[in-house]
Each structure stands twice: as structure tokens, then as C-alpha cells.
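Internal tracking record. Fields below are filled automatically when a chain is submitted to the structure queue. Please do not edit lines marked as system-generated. If the sequence contains nonstandard residues, flag them in the REMARKS field before resubmitting.
Queue: standard
Priority: normal
Entity type: single polypeptide chain
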Amino acid sequence: MKTFLRSRDDASKGAALMIVLALVVLLTGLSLAYFSRTTTDRQLAQSSYNDTSADLLARTALDIVVGDLKQEIINNPTITYANIQPARYTPAPTPGRSPIANLIRQSYSGDPTGRTSNVHSIDLSANGRSISLARWNTHYLIPRASPGPGQDWDTIYTNPVDSFGAPDWVLVTAQGPTRTPSPSTVIGRYAFAVYDEGGLLDMSLAGYPNWSGLPGSGCNPSPTPWLVNVGRKGIAAFADLTALPAAPSTNLPQSQVDNIVGWRNYATAQRTFTNFPNPSPSPVFGGETNCTNQAIYGSYLLYFGDPPFVIESIGNLLTASVYPFSAVYPGTSSSRTDQALMTRQELLKMRSALGFSQNVLQYMGTVSRERNRPAPDWPKLNGTLS
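SYSTEM-GENERATED OUTPUT FOLLOWS
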């Protein structure tokens, strides 16, 4: 039989080829992983760059708007009837319609700054984006329009009244805002509306619950220095929220006011319910004639805190309760405390949870609380008060 001889060099060449192919496969895999990773990193970097650019533009816009308000203060060092409030500039409302009460100013082409273009924010841009009238009123500071077909006043919608005109765009170039810039020089845009919440009800304080009980016999008044503590919350605590219009012919019912107080002042009102709105038909403080519940009701209206109190005279000021009117009562009920409303978003979430009318939100705020303290001349009135 004939024997075939094989060269050892052929075997070595085959092994080398396999190694080379394996290295090519590894390098190809590494290359694909590298390009995939760099592509992802590039997308993330581009997204971060765009977010940063938008944030810087928004901060710049805010600085410009706030700067205009500060400049008004500098230009008017002497306070007069004419300049006690910020200058208002908004589009003239449709004839026969009232202006928006809380709206101070907005970006529109006729404003005195000379920065705003005549491009409406509700019109579609080149990339198909716009800001609708309903989106401009997601804070509910503008009265809502009448319900549309198939809707009523309880329907969830944010469409504003017809007298509100959407703000126009302020077009920003590298040199700053310009009313009529060349399209190729525009690097961004913004629109704004400024509202005055100073006259709104501070919903961390405003309103009181129903009381259906009669004064209990044998209850002695708490040793409260009422001249001081009645001012802990201010007159906002005595605001009658049932006077707010929930619809054209109906007002906010007392049961919904009780739910607001029961959620906001849970510990002060000694609540025990866990679901909102309160499924119990009894008012927050109602139906009881005992002294304890009367004291709770008085504590809610007058101050945060309980005796003993310390009255000190610091200069010409009287101080009392260790819990200032802006504080949240530190006590608990069923392991829960009172809740303060710090932002408007929290107010909107509370409304969503409790389900009261959206119409009353135009009268409600969270940042209108003024500094509240006894008048400096009170200590000098000793013996002259009835």
C-alpha cells in the first residue's frame, strides 16, 4: 500500500490560520462594541448638551424678567400710589371682556421692552411644536372657560377664558433678545406670563372647618394670650372658603372645606381617617360638646401650639407661642402630622386627591403669607383697652 506523507509545515499553517481568524473575530467584536458604545455616548452627550443649553436659556430668560422688575424698583425709590404695584403690560382684552385679575405682564409684541416678536406661542413652529392655551393655564390662575359640549364644571380641563391671549415668543440671538432677528441668527426662544399671588388665599392657613357642637358647660377658657396668638395665623384663618364660586350658581360646599382642613391640619384637628376625601359624614370638629374638642377648635383658629406660653417683651414687641404661625404643629394624630402646602404643585395635587372644584384655584395660593406680628405700640396701650 502506498503511504502519503504529510508535511509538518501544512499543519503549522492551518493552526496559524485558525489563530488569525480568531483574532479577526475578536477585533471585529471589539470594534463593534467600541462603535456602539461611542454612538451611545455621543447621543447621551448630545442630549446633555441640549438640556444644558435649554436650562441656560431658561435661566437667562428668568434673569431678564426679574431684572425688569428690579429695574422698576431702582427707577422708583419713592413709593407712590402710581408705582406701589409692578407696571402691567398685557394685550388689551377682547372688547366687552374683563382682563385677567392676577396677570401682571406677559411677553407680547406690543410690550414696552421692544424684545418680543409677533410670533404667537400657540402657532406651530417649523418643527411642529407649540404651546396651547390649555397648557398656559395648567396652574389654574386664569379663570376657566365655560364647559364645552358634553362637559360640565366638574370636568377636568384647563382651557382659559377668551380674554386671555397666549404670550408671544421672545427670539434670542447671540447678542440677546431681538424683536425681528434674521432666522439664521436665532439660537433659542422663550415666552412668559407673570402672575401676582399677593392677593390670593394662603392655603396653608386659610379656611376653617364646620363646628356643629354647642359650648360645653364647665369648660374654662385656655390661658391663651389671645392678643398675641390671634395673630399667629392672621385673618386668613377666618376666611370663609364656602364663599368661593365652584360654578356660576354654586359655591364650595362646607364638606369639601372640611376635607381640606382635615388633610392639611390632620394632627391639630385630631383626625383618624386614612382615605381622602373623608368618607365620614361628620364635620372635622362637629358634634362634640366636650372641652377637649373645643380647645382643639380654638387651637386650630388661633395658634399653633399649646400652653404653657411665655410672654416676653423684646423692645416694643410681644412674643408668645413657641410655634410661629408659619410652622407646622409638631404633634401627631395616628402617627401623622399636619401638612403644609409649600408649592403650587402641592396645592394642585391636594385638589386632585380631595376632588374639590378647579374653579376655586384661581383664588388660592401658597406664597402670599405676609410677616404677621403684633403692632409695636401694643405695650403702650396698657389700661386703655376695653
